[in-house]
Design a protein that fits this description.
Elements lengths: L1 H14 L14 H13 L1 H4 L22 H10 L15 H18 L8 H9 L9 E2 L2 E2 L9 H4 L2 H9 L11 E6 L4 E9 L3 E6 L4 E5 L3 E6 L14 H13 L7
Antiparallel strand pairs: 1-2, 3-4, 3-7, 4-5, 5-6
Helix pairs in contact: 2-5, 4-5, 6-9, 8-9
């Protein structure tokens, strides 16, 4: 395992990120934390960080095509699946490491359908609107900014663990619909904003002043996606209790009709 850990540590330094994912810093059992680390290093490249990138397979919700037990999963990880893109990992992982990955699968599945987080949603709302300064970018119902994604129904589409990760490590996963772009016009004007839409000839975005802007691509000197999220990490801004409250509030946001 030390080889995998070393590779992840080097990658984290290169990318300027944290060596350990957010959940490992919040008291998750060691077996699950190790399984998460191994999953991100060996599986996420195909399955995605939430285990849902392969059609018909959702590792984060316990949905498997060919397995009904942990032993079945060990066999698949060990030997791969002939005729598919799933390779064997027998030479890369020990059985203990494979079972650590499976423990992480089970942990993700156990939290996938959580209806509440272990915090206080009312306090979380106060943090969201106050100390967290979330309304400066996000909107809930008729309150807040349109610069960032609308969070009115975020609790209906994102899991608790995903919401926590987004708060602590915003760069860990940036959904395509939430990407920010940097434009430089031929006249030298530089603009940054959230991408709303683009086609062959035009690009539309919303800027920091909440203006809806559209540009012909032929008028641009530069057009690049930003690799980093503009959202600041709450790791050092909020204490663990405030994070739990904020996650609980976000989980409670199920849409206008359910609030």
């Amino acid at each position: 395992m030390w080889v995998v850990r070393l590779a992840i540590a080097i990658l984290a330094v290169v990318l300027g990120g944290e060596t350990l994912p957010a959940k490992q810093q919040r008291g998750v059992p060691a077996e699950i934390a190790d399984g998460q680390e191994l999953f991100l290093a060996n599986c996420a490249v195909c399955h995605g960080p939430d285990g849902d990138s392969v059609p018909g397979v959702n590792l984060g919700r316990g949905k498997f095509r060919r397995a009904s037990s942990d032993d079945d999963l060990v066999q698949i990880i060990e030997a791969g699946i002939p005729g598919t893109a799933m390779p064997p990992f027998a030479k890369n992982l020990s059985e203990i490491e494979m079972r650590g990955i499976i423990a992480y699968f089970r942990y993700m599945a156990s939290t996938a359908f959580s209806v509440s987080a272990p915090g206080d949603a009312l306090r979380g709302k106060d943090t969201f609107e106050g100390k967290g300064e979330c309304l400066s970018c996000h909107r809930v119902k008729d309150k807040g900014s349109r610069l960032g994604p609308d969070l009115t129904e975020i609790g209906a589409v994102r899991r608790m663990v995903e919401l926590e990760r987004s708060l602590l490590d915003p760069d860990a996963e940036i959904l395509p619909q939430n990407r920010f772009v940097r434009l430089v016009t031929r006249e030298g004007l530089t603009l940054t904003g959230r991408l709303l839409n683009q086609d062959t000839f035009t690009v539309q975005l919303i800027d920091s002043k909440e203006r809806l802007l559209s540009f012909p691509k032929s008028s641009l000197k530069e057009y690049t996606f930003l690799e980093k999220s503009p959202m600041p990490s709450q790791q050092d801004r909020l204490d663990p209790g405030e994070i739990a409250d904020l996650v609980s509030y976000l989980v409670s946001l199920k849409g206008i009709n359910n609030q």
